[in-house]
């Protein structure tokens, strides 16, 4: 907001100045929201890396989650498989999309948003 104080807006009407300031304020709010979203995604990605998520090239147990490495339920006849990375994932590592389908959290969801 310091930059706003340096800009001379005297040539604008009061209504025009007000509208410009509203737009700049909304822009700042959206930037903060986006920064928070990016920080959250980075944190989730670091969490997956720390837990040692499966890589598409490795041989891993089909009975463990491809994201968090937790054992999958033995009751599930058909494990839940991500459509993008093809790993079996637990419910905690699934992110539901607006259309009701889901992808594994962090990696596939973030790729799908880009």
Automatic annotation (TrEMBL):
Pfam families on file: FYVE_2
Chief localisation class: cytoplasm
Cellular compartments annotated: Cytoplasm, Perinuclear region
Superkingdom per UniProt: Eukaryota
SUPFAM superfamilies named in the record: FYVE/PHD zinc finger
Keyword annotations: Cytoplasm
UniProt domain RabBD: residue ranges: 6-64
Classification via PROSITE patterns: RABBD (PS50916)
Protein name (record): RabBD domain-containing protein
Natural source organism: Oryzias javanicus
């Amino acid at each position: 907001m310091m930059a706003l104080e340096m800009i001379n807006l005297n040539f604008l009407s009061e209504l025009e100045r007000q509208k410009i300031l509203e737009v700049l304020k909304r822009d700042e709010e959206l930037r903060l929201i986006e920064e928070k979203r990016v920080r959250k995604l980075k944190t989730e990605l670091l969490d997956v890396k720390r837990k040692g998520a499966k890589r598409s090239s490795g041989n891993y147990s089909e009975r463990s989650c491809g994201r968090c490495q937790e054992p999958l339920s033995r009751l599930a006849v058909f494990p839940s498989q991500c459509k993008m990375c093809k790993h079996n994932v637990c419910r905690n590592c699934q992110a539901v999309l607006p259309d009701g389908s889901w992808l594994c959290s962090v990696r596939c969801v973030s790729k799908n948003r880009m």
